[in-house]
């Protein structure tokens, strides 16, 4: 069996592991548009802060590829998929035949059309090359504007602040990280950021960019506000890289590629995993699980991918957040909270029909986070112990005996 994987990401590496669980002999080729072996993308902010070095970046040691007999082609892009010939065409003219193909092409930063904006005017914050380019400009005393106050924008903000750059966040929504934070939590974090010297403009966006005589950027916002900056970072989301599949019969594109329960794309022998999949949250745990299952299925398994609720852990400037599921919900749900603004503690459980539907934890994070995650993902009834959920002594023993005995056995 001849396996080809497009993309050298978390999904791709886990697909290799999945394939080798069932097939130790088939050939595996990975094609990476980047010039690096797979690395932990969350580490790019730590690299910019010099908390990790180049040698700390790889997701797996190079021996992983050697042990699993994987050929890795770095710095090449797949430019065409020919499903009839079962070939992938690369940008150097090489044609790779496949029996099974995985598209783990991820996503690219979304940059909206803005008057006067050119590619030389902004940075993105998605991959290793982004931060390597940004490093030379992130000099103490400079000013940066970040468009977008979601997880990517917040991590870019932290890295720049740690390097002595003055940061302004501009967010179109009425609060930061709106999909995960409700109004009260977002307001608390906004105050925290402002106390750290970060400017924050909500309900606003960038409408025009031009260079001044001193080569600084002049930025005009929808509100009429005008800003000046040395650095502009675009962090307002990603778009799945589905170009290889566009226009091919049997494939459905809905922003990402629509896949079947086995992660197949509708083309014979072609699967997808990670950010390129329609409806898949751009989160590493989901990409890893999808990659592993797709790899197994490519090698002959018949495994079904069960989508999991979104799970995100984010830390910046000493503040830590975990969000799970429908964590920003309020109206129409039963909500349990523990709030201590002075200590920057916010704990919120969202219940629907006596089952956890969302969890938001800020700064007071302990072993209970794992229990909440199990309750959420398994849809367990919490009515018998609902009053104990936020108590300091809540733990496994509060759960029904059959569950805690199972967890203790594990």
UniProtKB/TrEMBL annotation:
Residues 310-367 form the NADH-rubredoxin oxidoreductase C-terminal domain. Gene3D superfamilies: 3.30.390.30, FAD/NAD(P)-binding domain. Its EC number is 1.2.1.58. InterPro entries: FAD-bd_OxRdtase, FAD/NAD-bd_sf, FAD/NAD-binding_dom, FAD/NAD-linked_Rdtase_dimer_sf, Rubredoxin_C. One of its GO terms (molecular function) is phenylglyoxylate dehydrogenase (acylating) activity. Pfam families: Pyr_redox_2, Rubredoxin_C. The keyword Nuclease does not apply. It is an enzyme of class 1 (oxidoreductase). Its cofactor is FAD. Residues 2-291 form the FAD/NAD(P)-binding domain. Keywords: FAD, Flavoprotein, Oxidoreductase. This is NADH-dependent phenylglyoxylate dehydrogenase subunit epsilon. It comes from Neomoorella humiferrea. The lineage of its organism: Bacteria, Bacillati, Bacillota, Clostridia, Neomoorellales.
């Amino acid at each position: 069996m001849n396996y080809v994987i497009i993309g050298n990401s978390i999904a791709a590496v886990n697909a290799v592991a999945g394939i080798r669980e069932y097939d130790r002999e088939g050939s595996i080729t990975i094609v990476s548009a980047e010039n690096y072996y797979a690395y932990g993308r969350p580490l790019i902010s730590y690299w910019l802060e010099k908390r990790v070095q180049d040698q700390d970046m790889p997701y797996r040691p190079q021996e992983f590829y050697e042990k699993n007999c994987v050929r890795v082609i770095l710095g090449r892009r797949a430019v065409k998929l020919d499903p009839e010939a079962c070939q992938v065409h690369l940008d150097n003219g090489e044609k790779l035949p496949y029996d099974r193909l995985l598209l783990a092409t991820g996503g690219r930063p979304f940059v909206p059309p803005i008057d006067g904006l050119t590619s030389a005017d902004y940075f993105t914050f998605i991959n290793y090359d982004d931060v390597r380019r940004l490093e030379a400009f992130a000099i103490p005393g400079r000013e940066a504007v970040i468009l977008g106050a979601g997880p990517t924008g917040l991590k870019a903000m932290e890295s720049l602040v740690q390097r002595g750059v003055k940061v302004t966040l501009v967010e179109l929504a009425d609060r930061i990280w709106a999909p995960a934070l409700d109004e009260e939590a977002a307001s608390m974090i906004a105050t925290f950021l402002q106390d750290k010297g970060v400017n924050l403009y909500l309900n606003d966006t960038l409408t025009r960019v031009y260079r001044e005589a001193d080569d600084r950027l002049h930025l005009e916002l929808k509100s009429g506000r005008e800003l000046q900056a040395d650095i502009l970072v675009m962090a307002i989301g990603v778009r799945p890289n589905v170009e290889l599949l566009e226009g091919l019969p049997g494939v459905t594109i809905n922003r990402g590629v629509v896949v079947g329960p086995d992660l197949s794309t509708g083309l014979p022998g072609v699967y997808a995993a990670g950010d390129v999949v329609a409806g898949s949250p751009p989160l590493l745990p989901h990409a890893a699980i999808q990659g592993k299952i797709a790899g197994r299925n490519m090698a002959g398994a018949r495994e079904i991918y069960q989508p999991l609720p979104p799970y995100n852990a984010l830390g910046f400037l000493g503040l830590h957040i975990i969000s799970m599921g429908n964590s920003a919900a309020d109206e129409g749900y039963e909500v349990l909270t523990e709030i201590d603004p002075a200590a920057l503690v916010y704990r919120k459980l969202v219940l629907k029909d006596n089952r956890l539907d969302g969890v938001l934890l800020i700064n007071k994070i302990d072993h209970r986070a794992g229990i909440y995650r199990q309750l959420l993902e398994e849809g367990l009834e919490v009515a018998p112990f609902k009053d104990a959920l936020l108590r300091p002594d809540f733990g496994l023993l509060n759960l029904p005996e059959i569950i805690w005995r199972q967890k203790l056995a594990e």
